[in-house]
């Protein structure tokens, strides 16, 4: 069959789709990856076929508060606090909060990063290429529109917690209690006309919840940490993909002291343009610990620092999949790739979550599972971070909890092992369509 992957146009989001794309390719299926031209090189470096659609996104510029039209009080990262979709406390998911999330994020994030030109190009390509399955990123709704326009089955591939599924479940419950004339759904108000522009309207063709949550969801988050939702879900083992890399020689040597990885990842800097946590404060916190710290810092971060502590080895990049097996703990920003790679290797975590999508609730669920400690960036002090690192290193319960989730992941079907199930789902979808279903 033909499978079209549609990631958000950021390198980290491409990386999240590579293992499944290659599993389908290795099973003999034809695979293409379509998104804005920004990440064409990331796609082709992974050995996959890229289809550039639309104009370059330049995501950091798109998300620059100075260019979004936000009022001054919501600039800098205040908009992420005020409009945080990672708020999942049921007591706080009021109708007003839920509507505010969709009313703000639909134009500011979703529509801003998935413009009409990109959707139109993707629909044109899909109608010409005729994929059997479209696998799309939960951050972009061009994929399901193209799937519906071309008659393909479609599925979301998550990179973290299913915030969209949770928020839509709660928001739909709010809307269903209102008279039809008062049901104001910002996503429908955006995507409904998009579908109509491509000749799609009416039952099974116009807007419905499958355009938001997929016909089914492929989820790499371990079931014990995932949000429990009544949606068709295909669990898949997380397989780390770090892009092209060379393993440094020093990594072949056993560390003389317990090794701790410190990384703030690239996702927040790639999307917003900077880090939230202070690198200097993080390094000061571990400077006097009897550990070897491997800190992934780029030239811009290093330029802002003075001399590094003697127990810190700074590297611009090292593949986490190769580094973390030698680590006793990892300090990080809560990003999906770092978090899941640490789970895959059973490494206890100290999370200082950048306020980006599901970083905070993901850190909280890891803390509740006993494999991590966490602290918001605005409450971080060197002393508090040092105490968390020491506790994670010295309390064996964290390593045991991390090993338990690692074993759960190892028992989850790999990307290659879910391919036959995906084939059956696509065949069932096509059968439903022949029998008049949506």
Portion in strands? 5-15%
Largest sheet at a glance?
Answer: 7 strands, parallel
Q: In terms of structural class, how would the helical and strand content be classed? A: alpha/beta
| CATH fold-type name of the largest domain | Rossmann fold
Number of strands: 13
Oligomer description: single chain
Q: Judging by the overall fold, what is the CATH architecture of the largest domain?
A: 3-Layer(aba) Sandwich
List keywords for this structure.
438 residues; alpha/beta; Rossmann fold; 2 domains; 7-stranded parallel sheet; 6-stranded parallel sheet; 19 helices; antibiotic biosynthesis
Offer a concise description of the structure.
44% of the residues lie in helices and 13% in strands. The protein has 438 residues and is of the alpha/beta class. Strand 11 (329-332), helix 15 (336-344) and strand 12 form a beta-alpha-beta unit.
Secondary-structure topology with pairs:
Elements: E1 2-6, H1 11-26, E2 30-35, H2 40-45, E3 50-52, H3 59-62, H4 78-82, H5 95-113, H6 116-129, E4 133-137, H7 142-150, E5 153-157, H8 163-176, H9 186-197, H10 210-213, E6 216-219, E7 233-235, E8 259-263, H11 267-272, H12 279-286, E9 292-296, H13 299-303, E10 312-315, H14 320-323, E11 329-332, H15 336-344, E12 349-351, H16 359-368, E13 372-374, H17 382-394, H18 396-410, H19 415-434
Helix pairs in contact: 1-19, 6-7, 12-17
Q: What do these coordinates show?
A:
This protein has helices at 11-26, 40-45, 59-62, 78-82, 95-113, 116-129, 142-150, 163-176, 186-197, 210-213, 267-272, 279-286, 299-303, 320-323, 336-344, 359-368, 382-394, 396-410, 415-434; strands at 2-6, 30-35, 50-52, 133-137, 153-157, 216-219, 233-235, 259-263, 292-296, 312-315, 329-332, 349-351, 372-374. 44% of the residues lie in helices and 13% in strands. It has 438 residues and is an alpha/beta fold. The relative contact order is 0.12. It has two domains: 2-237 and 413-434, Rossmann fold (3-Layer(aba) Sandwich), CATH 3.40.50.2000; 249-410, Glycogen Phosphorylase B (Rossmann fold, 3-Layer(aba) Sandwich). It is globular. The chain has a seven-stranded parallel sheet, sandwiched between helices. A six-stranded parallel sheet has the order 10-9-8-11-12-13, with helices on both faces. The chain has 19 helices and 13 strands.
